[in-house]
Amino acid sequence: MTTPPTSGSATARAFPNLALVKYWGKRDEELILPVAGSLSLTLDAFPTTTTVAVDPGLDGDVFELNGAAASDTAAERVTAFLDLVRERAGATDHARVHSVNEAPTGAGLASSASGFAALARAAAAAYDLDLDTPALSRLARRGSGSATRSVIGNVALWHAGADDETSFAEPVPAPDLAMVIATVDTAAKPVSSREAMRRTASTSPYFVAWITSTETTLTEMVAACRAGDFTRIGEITEAHAMRLHGLIASTEPPIRYLKPRSIEVMDTVVALRQEGVEAYSTADAGPNVAVLVRPEQAEAVAARLGDVVGPEKVRTAGPGPGAHLLPDAQPPAGAGGPVGDEGPAGAGS
Ligand code: DP6
User: Fold this and answer.
1) How far, in Å, from the CA of 57 to the mean position of ligand 1?
2) Which of 4, 2, 95, 22 is nearest to 257 (CA)?
């Protein structure tokens, strides 16, 4: 095998996803194999846009997030991920990584999902790795579990799988869905999901029940998606999210991500249902609440939630695409011109 080119540059974009059946717990920490499968909606809001530029002159990887040098922890995670890509590509050169993340980092809006899905897509292209979608989903999984699903657009089912080969996400047909996201707090979460998952596995007496019930719930959810049954999708979404937060609260010491304002939003959603508007709450490992609605009711629900958290803190999102390369970042075929690699292409759009 000849040495692959090591001066590639590529820019990719990926969107966060919100799980309707949650992923919580790993049975293999290194490979990031989950204890159960999960299912999510990839959004069309809060993207991460990432440029990976391989640079043979570098002694180590350089990671810039939102225009500033990233923390050591974040940089180490990016380097560990790029090491996996380099190993597969048979490459040794380091890279400059510029990432622009339009979601509030660390507040339960799955920024690691969009982050690692975009990084996987851009790094695979920059290091000239030709991966099909399942392989890309498996690669993204190694950065962060939820990133497995952000490789896929719209509704994605992550198969827990038996090993690295079989643990990836794929699309599932579903009715039209929308999310109304009420931002309650943008401060970083008190305990990372990674750490909280470990604590759950080692201290919660409910963990085994979580694993077995999630598999049953997932089967039911996939059937509801295929049947286009919005009501059942919503009911399962809300029940599973509440189970997740109950599980997390059952750890020792306990962890609580929801704030009083999160509960207020959830109560408003119950009130909306009593008024005949079909809306269902969910929340990831953070205080922000996402409300699953039919697209035609998104605006009315957004207005109601705006009364609770303030209109400027409410955002409506529809289904978004899977991780993709941005066309202007692809090398112009045969043109011989340089590909711009300074700055995060597509930032701020
Ligand atoms: C609550 O994917 O951030 O959002 O695999 O350790 O990186 P790691 O965890 P992460 O966890 C997401 C947990 C969740 C539920 C979900 O997205 O399914």
Assistant:
1) 35
2) 22
Which is the closest atom of ligand 1 to the Cα of 22? 18
Pinpoint the alpha helices (H) of the chain: 72-89, 111-126, 133-141, 147-150, 193-203, 207-227, 230-249, 260-274, 298-309
> Cα–Cα distance between 119 and 97 in angstroms, integer?
8
Q: How far is the CA of 196 from the centre of ligand 1 (A)?
A: 10
Tokens representing residue 75 in the block: 């940089």
Please give the chain's pLDDT, 349 residues, in tens: 445 445 699 999 999 999 999 999 999 999 999 999 999 999 999 999 999 999 999 999 999 999 999 989 899 999 999 999 999 999 999 999 999 998 765 444 557 999 999 999 999 999 999 999 999 999 999 999 999 999 999 999 999 999 999 999 999 999 999 999 999 987 778 899 999 999 999 999 999 999 999 999 999 999 999 999 999 999 999 999 999 999 999 999 999 999 999 999 999 999 999 999 999 999 999 999 999 999 999 999 999 999 999 999 999 999 999 999 997 654 434 333 322 222 222 222 2
CB 23 near ligand 1, within 6 Å: yes
R_g over Cα of the chain: 20
Cα(265) to centroid of ligand 1, in Å?
Answer: 22
Closest residue CA from atom 7 of ligand 1: 144
Say how many Å lie between the CA of residue 142 and the centre of ligand 1.
Answer: 12
